[in-house]
Amino acid sequence: MESEARSMLNKKWLVLGVFFAIVLLALQVTPGIRTYMNAVKAGVKPIVSINNWGNQEAIPVMARAQLIESEKVSRSNLLEIIEEEASKRKVLPINAKIDPVWKAVPGYNGLEVDIDETLKLAEHHLTPGKIQYVMKETSPSIQLEDLGPSPIYKGNPMKPMASFMINVAWGNEYLPIILETLRKENVHATFFLDGMWLKKNVDVAKKIQSEGHELSNHAYSHKDMRMISRSKATEEILRTEDLLKQQVGVNNTLFAPPSGYYNEETIQVASEFKLKTVLWTFDTIDWKNPGADRIIQRLSKAIEPGTLILMHPTISSSEALSGMIKMIKNKGLTLGTVTELLSPNRVPEANSVLWE
Fold first, then answer.
1. Burial track 334-344 (b if 16+ CB lie within 10 A, e otherwise)
2. Residues of the chain with pLDDT under 70
3. What's the confidence (pLDDT) of residue 5?
4. Which positions ≥6 away from 252 have C-beta within 8 Å?
5. 214-238: per-residue pLDDT in tens?
6. Residue 143 vs residues 9, 146, 172: alpha-carbon distances, Å
7. Whole-angstrom Cα distance, residue 106 to residue 50?
8. What single-letter DSSP state applies at residue 51?
9. Are strands 308-311 and 161-168 parallel, antiparallel or unpaired?
10. CB neighbours (10 Å) of residue 214?
11. Biggest CA pair distance of the chain
């Protein structure tokens, strides 16, 4: 009887051993559970949801971070975590295009995780307990330059930036006030200079440039570009280009036609000088002296990402400028030069590195 009882006990232990062996095997081959077991072995206590059992997402981000910190995760598992997160963070680039209303619209860079750099940082544990996701920009397949000669009225509507384009053809009285406001608000604008004005005011132009503003071409003598010959249009643009380069050392890329008047020949001539023809999204109409409050009120209803704001060194704009800047910033937009607005580069975020 004693030997029979011992035999029965051995069989029970054998059955239990086989059962637990099967359970352990299942735990090892099931991805979510395997990750859970690795965490347990590493001394981590991840919190899981019963509804997500067997899913990689069952191990939340902080638990996965702790698992990485424990130095128990293999390189392949770490790469798997990073690639999974990278697919969620990816933002596709936007191509430049010709719009039936706004003509040439710039593209906007996409954003994705730099997997190699992120993996290097994670492997070296530079930040214990966290993965440091390094982001990089990706370019559109169609750039503004690929569209051919075409006028530009605004930036990309997904780019949270606006720009002041200040056309200067006469009068210096309000320029110091405008420059002081821009300096105080840490904003850089683009000044389109009439050639005749520039020839007489090189020192003023250098002062504007020294404060970080962009200088560009506003033709030479404020002619209606629609009403002049091709050779005269060439002369108007060329003379100001020469002044910009020789007097203030500018390698210019932009042209703003006087009063916004142009035709297809104007665009072609400008493109031969490798200049983009730029107009505006919003006109302050400051030359009519509408008053600062009226300008701010109108702009507050019209401002949106990509807006090019036309103004001149007038009393109305000089008084409205501070209010315009504050209102634009309060709407979550940054302010940059026209070149910055038209570039596909993304507006810098508070941190170029994201954490999780």
1. bbbbbbbbbbb
2. 1-73, 126-129, 350-356
3. 52
4. 215, 216, 217, 241, 244, 245, 275
5. 999 999 999 999 999 999 999 999 9
6. 78, 5, 37
7. 48
8. G
9. parallel
10. 23
11. 121
Strands (E), the chain: 97-99, 103-105, 110-113, 132-138, 161-168, 190-193, 214-217, 254-255, 276-277, 282-283, 308-311, 334-335, 353-355
Q: Measure the CA–CA gap between 115 and 138, rounded to whole angstroms.
A: 13
Judge contact between 133 and 85, C-beta under 8 A.
yes
pLDDT score of 75: 77
> For residues 53 and 32, is the Cβ–Cβ distance under 8 A?
yes
Asked whether the beta carbons of 338 and 214 are under 8 A apart, the reply is yes
Q: How does pLDDT run across 17-33, given as a tens digit for each residue?
A: 656 656 555 555 454 45
Contact status, residue 320 vs residue 283, Cβ threshold 8 Å: no
Which residue, chain included where needed, has tokens 């840490």?
A: 186
Tell me the three state secondary structure of residue 126. Answer: coil
**Encoded tokens for 167:** 């056309």
State both tokens at 115.
Answer: 């997997």
Residue 7 phi/psi, 5-degree rounding, is -65, -45
Residues 6+ positions from 207 with CB-CB distance below 8 Å: 179
Query: 198: exposed, middle or buried (C-beta count within 10 Å: 0-12, 13-18, 19+)?
Result: buried
Statement: the pTM of the whole predicted model exceeds 0.85? no
Q: In the structure encoding, which two tokens stand for residue 346, read together?
A: 């993304």
